[in-house]
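Project outcomes to date are best conveyed with an example. Our students and postdoctoral researchers have been running inverse folding experiments weekly, and each run begins with a structure described purely in tokens. The record below, which covers 322 residues, was selected by the lab manager from last quarter's runs and is presented without edits.
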């Protein structure tokens, strides 16, 4: 009898049994960047399909700052039961522990549930500048006596910081870097003529700002021109920037210790979003791209591959903690 009681106790406390009936109450997503940015827009768009698939409501709380690490730490404080998730951009999540002193977490211990959106970067300029292409910009920045232009990003080690550092290194140029908490305030200041340049992902509000003429697109950091912006060249079309390709992917993560059945259920729901008509329509509307659906194991492998890639970039660019 004692043996049967022990077996019953183990069964009742196992992750598989705990996950039965999941989810049966609202899920909170700690969004690591301000409202209006690519991660925020992608996650909120996915929430519509996720809620339809999962049942309970999804509540998104913006917790920005420190290249997304404040949001990560907020998610870490919660019980790892699948009811508190992290929404962030992949590169910022992976790189912050190496360049942001306050980012005390281990990315490899989180579980990637699925990618909700991916966008190529585009170099934007304020309408106050007269550059018509990337080569004119490089020529101006190299010319002795030229006014130093400002280059905005959203913090040390953030994706646009890495892209900007690589750009300056390859072209032998130097800009005055201005950090923000996210892409949304960068674009707001650029539209107002307060910032000269920035690398921003095409997803979110970037495309509409370009199309409405509020900012200028100089070049896209992709292998081919984007169909939504056929007149905007790729960075690689410049002789100084062969194979200059960068994208930003936004995703949902589960904190360390989340039960495997819960991870599998959330991964399944994200794959439904990935292939949904809602997502395909969104991709077409904002000039972003789609990754193929991934199993839990494939998501683990993808996260490891991305981590290795960006750690190598941080070391190659000699980015230091600030």
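After processing, the design step wrote out the following sequence:
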């Amino acid at each position: 009898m004692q043996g049967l009681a022990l077996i019953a106790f183990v069964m009742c406390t196992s992750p598989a049994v705990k996950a039965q009936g999941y989810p049966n109450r609202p899920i909170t997503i700690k969004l690591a960047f301000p409202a209006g940015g690519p991660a925020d827009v992608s996650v909120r768009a996915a929430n519509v399909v996720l809620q339809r698939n999962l049942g309970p409501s999804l509540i998104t709380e913006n917790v920005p700052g420190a290249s997304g690490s404040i949001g990560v730490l907020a998610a870490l404080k919660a019980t790892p039961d699948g009811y508190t998730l992290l929404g962030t951009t992949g590169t910022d999540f992976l790189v912050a522990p190496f360049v942001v002193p306050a980012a005390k977490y281990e990315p490899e211990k989180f579980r990637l549930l699925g990618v909700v959106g991916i966008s190529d970067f585009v170099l934007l300029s304020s309408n106050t500048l007269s550059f018509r292409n990337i080569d004119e910009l490089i020529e101006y920045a190299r010319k002795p006596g030229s006014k130093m232009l400002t280059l905005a990003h959203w913090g040390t080690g953030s994706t646009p910081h890495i892209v900007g550092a690589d750009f300056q290194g390859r072209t032998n140029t130097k800009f005055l870097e201005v950090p923000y908490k996210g892409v949304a305030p960068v674009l707001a200041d650029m539209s107002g003529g307060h910032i000269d340049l920035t690398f921003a992902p095409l997803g979110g509000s970037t495309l509409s700002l370009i199309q409405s003429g509020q900012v200028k697109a100089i070049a896209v950091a992709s292998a081919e021109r984007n169909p939504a912006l056929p007149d905007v060249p790729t960075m690689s079309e410049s002789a100084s920037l062969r194979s200059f390709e960068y994208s930003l992917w936004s995703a949902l993560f589960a904190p360390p210790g989340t039960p495997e059945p819960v991870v599998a259920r959330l991964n399944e729901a994200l794959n439904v979003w990935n292939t949904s008509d809602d997502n395909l329509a969104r991709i077409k509307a904002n000039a972003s791209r789609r990754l193929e659906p991934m199993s839990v194991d494939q998501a683990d492998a993808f996260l490891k591959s991305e981590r290795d890639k960006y750690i190598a970039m941080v070391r190659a660019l000699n980015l230091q903690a600030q």
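The longest helix spans residues 296-316. The radius of gyration is 21 Å. The training component of this project remains on track.
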